[in-house]
């Protein structure tokens, strides 16, 4: 993942984009404050916060250890709260927006992903309650719920993608895989002025797999 971030940073810098990449382990309580302390003040206050950290281990529900449960929730859910606490004053100043990342698994509840599913369901609740909490500050909080997106993590587990296709295409309305570029437009919309009156909402981007 570090190599991926470094490559992305290089590409963006080559395109003239100002970027600062900061590595951190978001399972650690003090990581959000360390991230904030390393921001470049020349960039100005933060106006968009995307909470995208995720961790998952696949096991039978009663084979998970307490450590695995706690680590999953620390990364997937607690880090969002801690990061938002760190960036709150910036977001209040800029009347900014927060975008969380849930998962379609919180609706489909697949076997073998129990702590991940529970944590992602928690992200949805976090999104709604923070939209209420921060609405008086003019801060919008919304969530993107991706479906079967072909990520780097999935490529490692299933190089040819056949296993996911077999499971998803039976019910997904659009018979093709989703990729990162299929998500990009939703993030741009939620972060922009055209979504200025939208908060506390979850937008599902799954090719018509689950229709809420």
Q: What labels describe this entry?
A:
212 residues; alpha/beta
Strand content: 5-15%
Oligomer: single chain
Q: Superfamily at the CATH H level?
A: NAD(P)-binding Rossmann-like Domain
Q: Find the CATH topology.
A: Rossmann fold
Q: Span from first to last CA?
A: 32 Å
Count the domains. 1
H and E string: HHEHEHHEHHHE
> Number of DSSP helices?
8
Protein described:
With 212 residues, this protein is of the alpha/beta class. Helices cover 47% and strands 9% of the residues. It has a single domain (24-205), classed as Rossmann fold, CATH 3.40.50.720. It has 8 helices and 4 strands; from the N terminus they run H-H-E-H-E-H-H-E-H-H-H-E. It has helices spanning 2-14, 31-37, 66-94, 105-108, 114-134, 152-157, 162-168, 180-191; strands at 48-51, 97-101, 140-146, 202-205. The mean pLDDT is 93. The protein has a 4-stranded parallel sheet, with helices on both faces.
Task: Briefly summarize what is shown.
Helices cover 47% and strands 9% of the residues. It has 212 residues and is an alpha/beta fold.
What's the arrangement of secondary structure elements?
Layout: H1 2-14, H2 31-37, E1 48-51, H3 66-94, E2 97-101, H4 105-108, H5 114-134, E3 140-146, H6 152-157, H7 162-168, H8 180-191, E4 202-205
Parallel strand pairs: 1-2, 2-3, 3-4
């Amino acid at each position: 993942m570090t190599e991926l971030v470094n490559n992305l940073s290089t590409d963006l810098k080559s395109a003239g984009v100002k970027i600062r990449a900061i590595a951190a382990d978001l399972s650690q309580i003090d990581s959000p404050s360390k991230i904030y302390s390393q921001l470049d003040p020349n960039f100005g206050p933060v106006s968009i916060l995307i909470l995208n950290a995720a961790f998952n281990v696949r096991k039978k529900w009663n084979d998970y250890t307490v450590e695995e449960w706690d680590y999953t929730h620390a990364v997937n859910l607690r880090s969002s709260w801690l990061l938002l606490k760190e960036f709150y004053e910036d977001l209040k100043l800029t009347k900014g927006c927060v975008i969380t990342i849930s998962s379609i698994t919180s609706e489909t509840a697949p076997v073998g992903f129990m702590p991940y599913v529970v944590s992602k369901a928690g992200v949805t609740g976090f999104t709604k309650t923070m939209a209420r909490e921060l609405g008086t500050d003019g801060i919008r909080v919304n969530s993107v719920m991706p479906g079967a997106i072909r990520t780097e993590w999935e490529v490692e587990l299933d190089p040819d993608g056949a296993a996911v296709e077999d499971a998803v295409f039976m019910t997904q309305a659009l018979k093709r895989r989703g990729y990162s570029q299929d998500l990009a437009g939703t993030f741009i919309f939620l972060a922009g002025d055209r979504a200025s009156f939208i908060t506390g909402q979850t937008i599902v981007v799954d090719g018509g797999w689950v229709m809420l």
